[in-house]
């Protein structure tokens, strides 16, 4: 089975804008299309409460015409057009949509951050983890989310194996970003966020990329848009993951990033697994 995860940073912009960045985004969509994945998870759709428009659905069908689409968007009291997740899965798969509520702080449960599919022999979980924010203003809330999310995956894992993917907004180890020494107080690399990820893995999950690729360095999934040379210099972070239940780790065949060309921000990631 081939699975892909990508933080698209606005589905509408990627599908309908004529900006240079939108063109780069559509190039990435073409790359994803060619890989013919069984399941595609998308984060940060930024769609309205009503979800994808008819135009969005038509364009998506041009790329992925043999897929069902499930989505969840931000709803009040959360901000409009904020966060949001989506899953596309092949028509030959049988899946039930689940929309978990973690009882997370602030408006996190209303931001469309968590979407699950229950399939015959595993759960597939798509997550867009809250960012600690500028000045770490949301760090305490983020820490609570991390605990609740880890407990949620652990509960699922009691029933059947779990494959969890998405933008986790944390570089777990120093080898997961280009400049660790200067980022210990930055959102996504604080001790608290890294400890939260360690706690998650301790619940019975593995980071599939590290399991397959070991301590390889220079492998990142995100490059800052604010710094024009970040991708040229490969000054990136690895904050996007495929996690799998420990008991199915030997079924993992491949876990890697998908080349996103000149586009900054997130690159898609790929998992191949026999399940």
Helix fraction by DSSP (H/I, runs of at least 4): 25-40%
Order of helix and strand elements from N to C terminus = EHHEHEEEEEHEHEHEEEEE
Shape: globular
Largest sheet: 6 strands, mixed
Biggest sheet strand line-up: 3-4-2-1-14-12
End-to-end Cα distance, whole Å, is 7 Å
Highest-level CATH class: Alpha Beta
Strand content: 15-25%
Q: Can you tell me the CATH topology?
A: Deoxyribonuclease I, Chain A
Describe this structure as you would to a colleague:
This protein has 275 residues and is of the alpha+beta class. It has one domain: Deoxyribonuclease I, Chain A. Helix content is 25%, strand content 24%. The strands form three sheets. It has a six-stranded mixed beta sheet with strand order 3-4-2-1-14-12. Helix 4 (139-157) runs parallel beside helix 5. The longest helix is centred in the middle third of the chain and has 19 residues, at 139-157. The radius of gyration is 17 Å and the shape is globular. The mean pLDDT is 98.
What is shown here, in short?
With 275 residues, the chain is of the alpha+beta class.
Please name the defining characteristics of this protein.
14 strands; Deoxyribonuclease I, Chain A; alpha+beta; 6-stranded mixed beta sheet; 275 residues
Secondary structure blueprint with pairings:
Layout: E1 2-7, H1 11-16, H2 20-35, E2 39-43, H3 54-63, E3 67-72, E4 85-90, E5 96-98, E6 114-118, E7 123-128, H4 139-157, E8 162-167, H5 191-202, E9 205-207, H6 208-213, E10 222-223, E11 240-245, E12 252-257, E13 265-266, E14 269-273
Parallel strand pairs: 1-2, 7-8
Antiparallel strand pairs: 1-14, 2-4, 3-4, 5-6, 6-7, 8-11, 9-11, 10-13, 12-14
